[in-house]
Amino acid sequence: MNVLLTGAAGFVGRPAVDLIGAEHDVTAFDIRPVEHYDRAIQGDVRDYATVEAAMAGHDAVVNTIMAPGASYRMDGPGFDINVRGFLNLLEAARQCRVRRFVHTSSGAVHTGYPADTFLTHDLYPLRASGMYALSKLVQEELARNYHEQYGLSIACIRPWSIIDAERMVTTDGAPVHGYSFGTIDRRDVARALLCALNAPDIAYECFYVFATPGGYKKGDVARTEARLGWKPVYRFDVDL
Ligand SMILES: NC(=O)c1ccc[n+]([C@@H]2O[C@H](COP(=O)([O-])OP(=O)(O)OC[C@H]3O[C@@H](n4cnc5c(N)ncnc54)[C@H](O)[C@@H]3O)[C@@H](O)[C@H]2O)c1
Questions:
Q1: Which of 96, 71, 97 is nearest to 84 (CA)?
Q2: Beta-carbon neighbour count of residue 59 at 10 Å?
Q3: Nearest Cα to 123, choosing from 223, 200, 43, 26?
Q4: Domain 2-228 has CATH 3.30.420.10
């Protein structure tokens, strides 16, 4: 498939370019340059014309765009990037008759529930705590609506705390001093995106991904394994 991978310069996006690129023809899209990758488009997801032009000719889209951490203030662009930008991707995917839309969502869509809640793919309503989480909630609701209105095939992957287990850093380069039940390596998230891209029968579906014993108790990741054939390669020995 011809795949448009958005957020391709990012912590998850960059390994996803290489992993998905080994099986599919990947065009990278990001507001920043994508290092060591020639087939890249530099553009802002908030600009619909740019997004639709980038989407043309692609069979699928894998989205990993995230607004920077400090930008979710009311006067910052974070909500606009995550929500308006995401709506641009959905609409462009519809216009370009994309066959599969894979989105990197987040366990943040359930952070408004009590801590002992078992997290499932179909726990509704979504309940978010904080502005970033709210933007992830709105993304999922937009995606669900685009499936219901227009039949777009959409898979949402829900990781929790993504790290690079080799360099021991988080997405913003901060050192990792300890693991939590939600710890997962960025390459395992990228692998889940690939599995969701290749899965034959997705209507609208969300998938928790965990890589710790505590994570398996916290959410229905066993279902993700069964549905997508995904398993974490990097595992962390943390209980709840
Ligand atoms: N990092 C985590 O711990 C974590 C946890 C759960 C879910 N997620 C989700 O995983 C996904 C990937 O996160 P990440 O850690 O790789 O983030 P990241 O910040 O490393 O990467 C995001 C990419 O989006 C790009 N981007 C930002 N604004 C843009 C714009 N206006 N137009 C085009 N591109 C733009 C950035 O340049 C960057 O390369 C996000 O959807 C995030 O919500 C992350």
A1: 71
A2: 16
A3: 223
A4: no
- The three-class DSSP label of residue 161 is strand
Closest ligand 1 atom, residue 46 Cα: 31
The CA 13 to ligand 1 mean position distance, Å, reads 8
pLDDT tens-place string over residues 224-238: 999 999 999 999 999
Which atom of ligand 1 is least distant from the CA of 13? 16
Contact residues of ligand 1, CB 6 A cut-off: 7, 9-13, 30-32, 44-46, 64-67, 81, 85, 104, 106, 136, 159, 161-162, 171
Q: Which tens digit of pLDDT belongs to each residue from 139-152?
A: 999 999 999 999 99
| Cα 165 from chain centroid (whole Å) | 19
Q: Where are the domains of the chain?
A: 2-228
Angstrom distance (rounded) from CA 183 to CA 151: 33
User: pLDDT tens-digit profile of 189-213?
Assistant: 999 999 999 999 999 999 999 999 9
d(Cα 173, Cα 163) in Å, to the nearest integer? 9
Which of 20, 42, 65 maximizes ligand 1 atoms within 8 Å of its Cβ, making it the mutation to test the pocket?
65
Q: What are phi and psi of 112, to 5 degrees?
A: -85, -5
Q: How far is the CA of 141 from the centre of ligand 1 (A)?
A: 19
What is the value of pTM for the model shown?
Answer: 0.98
**For residues 227, 233, 237 and 240, what is the CA-based torsion angle, rounded to 10 degrees?**
-30
Question: Separation of 30 CA from ligand 1 center, angstroms?
Answer: 10
Q: How far is the C-alpha of 210 from the C-alpha of 181, rounded, in Å? A: 8
